[in-house]
Amino acid sequence: MTTGLVAHERYFWHDTGNHAGLMPPRGMLQPYRHYEHGETKRRLLNLLRVSGLAEQLVAIEPRPATVAEVERLHTPRYIEHVRTLSDGFGGDAGEPTTRVPPGGFETALLAVGGAIAAVDAVLDGRVTNAYALVRPPGHHALADQGMGFCIFGNTALAALHARHARGLARVAILDWDVHHGNGTQAAFWDDPTVLAISLHQDDCFPGGSGGVAERGGAGALGSTINVPLPPGSGGDAYRLAFDTIVEPAIRAFQPDLILVASGLDASMYDPLARMCLFAGDYRDLARRVRLLAEDVCGGRLVAIHEGGYSAEYVPFCGHAIIEELAGLEPMIDDPFALGRVSSPIVLQPHQVAAVEAAR
Ligand SMILES: [Zn+2]
Question: 246 CA distance to ligand 1 centroid (A)?
């Protein structure tokens, strides 16, 4: 079994600007950095290299997506808007926190192309599965605007590539980013050939989005599944959701490929949500999805990096996932888990009720 890794230094150059977290610095707010900054993901790549895991992976070179490929999801008008901002001094792609920096158009195309390159490597049999460490993220981006730090919908466009360029009949997407995968949901709302499942913190971002009643359009009812979990959920709640909702749904759907929108912001240490996963819990989820892929689609699995804002902890969560995709035993200790292997938050009755409600 071989695991591919897409990475490129240019991803880390995407400059989200001078912020204090989410806020533009002004008045009493000292300038610092935007939560979505390049170091978080660069530190994951660095850890893969320092631990030796990177040497056991197959490097997959990303390429820029073409405009025609991006037009499978986004309107020509929006794509031109991003290009114009990028060619000038930069600006907002749709909301103030979602900035296109100078040159950001090319980086966003390289992120889409990285996700596509990972899909191609798996479908061509060059690797069994792959992790695309791309940036900027994509799962909030809508057809006609950017949102939630996302410019183009990397994961949705990878699924559209698999469907339309590679001729796969069915693709399943599991989004474990802590925020609702609203852009991916919108992309496939009326499309019964793509199963879009989102596990997320209930009503976190975007507000009011991702409730259990959102199940797909008239022609695709049931191909959207939302599992909103209460804040404070740990590994047990995620495992229950996977075992009782995600796995049966994907088995019934029989996809030809599974994509994971791999946000690492449901961790215990993330500043942008209130969930409690440790790296060991991400390892568990990755093992479950790898085994499921081996069972239903010959192991064909591509994880595409989305959010994750703890620069200290994201590297350990990502490392655990990639180790598990490669079928390797843990190579390093998780210094943040304080001797535990999974989240100390045991299953609570209201968390069980939330999972039951989503079934
Ligand atoms: Zn997120």
Answer: 19
Q: State the distance from the centre of ligand 1 to the C-alpha of 124, rounded, in angstroms.
A: 30
Token couple for 254:
């029989």
Backbone dihedral angles phi then psi of residue 259, each to the nearest 5 degrees? -110, 140
Q: Given this model, what pLDDT does residue 268 score?
A: 97
Spatial CB neighbours of 237, under 8 Å, sequence gap ≥ 6: 229, 230, 345, 347, 348, 351, 352, 354, 355
Among candidate residues 115, 106, 124, 97, the one with its CA nearest the CA of residue 35: 97
Q: What is the pLDDT of residues 90-134, one digit of tens each?
A: 999 999 899 999 999 999 999 999 999 999 999 999 999 999 999
C-alpha 225 to ligand 1 mean position (Å):
17
Q: How far does Cα 208 stand from its chain's mean position?
A: 20
Give me ligand 1 centre to Cα 263, in Å. 6
Q: Find the CATH number of the domain harbouring 179.
A: 3.40.800.20
Determine the residue type at 127: V
Average pLDDT of the chain is 97
Grade residue 229 by pLDDT with cuts at 50, 70 and 90: very high
Q: In angstroms, how far is CA 99 from the centroid of its own chain?
A: 19
SS3 content of the chain, % helix, strand, coil (to 5): 40, 15, 45
Q: Model confidence at 344, in pLDDT bands (50, 70, 90)?
A: confident
Find the domain containing 226 and state its range: 3-358
Q: Catalytic: which of 140, 180, 200, 305?
A: 140
- The CA distances from residue 47 to 52, 107, 307, 308, in Å, are 8, 23, 18, 16
Number of domains within the chain:
1
Any catalytic annotation for residue 140?
A: yes
Contact criterion met (CB below 8 Å) for 226 and 210: yes
Q: How far is the CA of 232 from the centre of ligand 1 (A)?
A: 16
Residue 339 has pLDDT above 90, yes or no: no
Query: What phi, psi does 31 have (nearest 5°)?
Result: -60, 135
- Distance, CA of 82 to CA of 67 (rounded, Å): 12
CA distance 202 to 351: 11
